[in-house]
Design goal:
four-stranded antiparallel sheet; 41% strand
Amino acid sequence: NTMIPNSILAQGTTMKTRMWSWLALPFTLLLSGCPDGGGGLVPGALLSSPVVYRADQDTNDVFELYMASSGTKLTPPLSGLQNVTTFAVLPDKSGVVYIADQDNNDVFELYLVRFAAPGSSTKLSGAIAGTQDVDQFVLLPNGSGVVYLADQDTPGTKELYFVSFSSVGTQTRLLAQPSGGAFDVSPDSSAVFYIANSGSGQNELFRVLLSGGNPILLISGPLTGGGNVTHFKIAPNGTTIVYRADQRVNERFELFYVTTSSPGSSVTLNGDLALVPGGDVNTTFAITPNSGAVLYQADETTDGIVELYRATIAASPVRNKINGILVVGRNVSSFAIAPNGAFVIYKADQDIIGVQELYRVVLSPLGPAQKVNPVIVAPKSVQSFGIAPDSGAIIYIADEITAGEHELHRVSSSVLGTSTILNGTLTAGGNVTSFGVLSDSSMVFYLADQATLGVTELYRVAVASPTSSIQSNGPLISGGNVTGFAF
């Protein structure tokens, strides 16, 4: 499955009212071994789980899917202006689900290809006409099927559908019409939560069970006139939902929690925004692994200064501002909670305006903010970051050494302030653009124009002992690039 950490922003391009997600993001996967030697493609070497990448490897501007290391094309050959857009590897690592205009140019549908039969795909979505599309999909965590959003039955009417991998060819419409397209599947794969306009002109949060035979359940609390639910997260426990809405005062966006056992009975998590004219909770928030608290960004203390807060998920929430001192013009820009729940890393220009750096805060008991990276001076900055699945390292992209040259760095989460460069030697002007850490935290994959300026390729390197990096994509046609990858 594809996981998008809070610290990384998806890069995409809007075309024909849908989002093309290149998936050039941090991901986790299970691999074993470490690279030895350097340079060049090593067919089949060291990979015990599949790694899929997207590239115009064979034809310029025709983006298809390939297996890392072997370079084997997975999708049937595409031509003209056809492309794969979004893709994700199945939880059992047997194949990949993707959206492409594979059969009809500019008509995007949902497909499955098994790794055992590259080049032979199965269409998962139902019949779609020339003006209709599949927009998004989410794989069920248990690997049994996929939920997707499409105007499959009525042009312009986006609805949710479910396909079981045991009965491909049969789609179940979930009788929901998400107006904003936001939906997710519960951790136990039993239900879909989604934001929709129920006919009142306002977006609310609903749940529908995949088993069928049950009415659609309204989850969010009563909205003020003009109010809307904009974003939501499902807690790891599967029963607690945190959502953002201007539920109490129109255009004042706050954070609420509700349980599936008491739908509609919401509790406000943030502080009193009425005391801060113009204050709002941002769209970025995350629930701790134990489902006990939520971290969120807001200008809750001073209008225009975005800071990081923690609130316990309880009838009477306990709230703390956890970042260091910020002044006007400085903000917390992103954050990520460690997988073990012990600490949070946030990115902010806390010390020097315009210079983004990383800071760690231990969550229990709540500790002070400590700088993660070595000192960075203007105009250098940290670009993006992630935390290794074992919570033992913070990995980030920054032009820490030379301004304008973005490399991949590692800092131990227990020994802050000393970084190690992970990537291989970059060609003059080359940059690392994105990365992903394996689920065993032994290795990182990254995209960079490391060998040739302007040619982005896929590499892997050991996290603990980065002696050399290994190119992991197949040979690219002149002008070709790798644009994303998934495990």
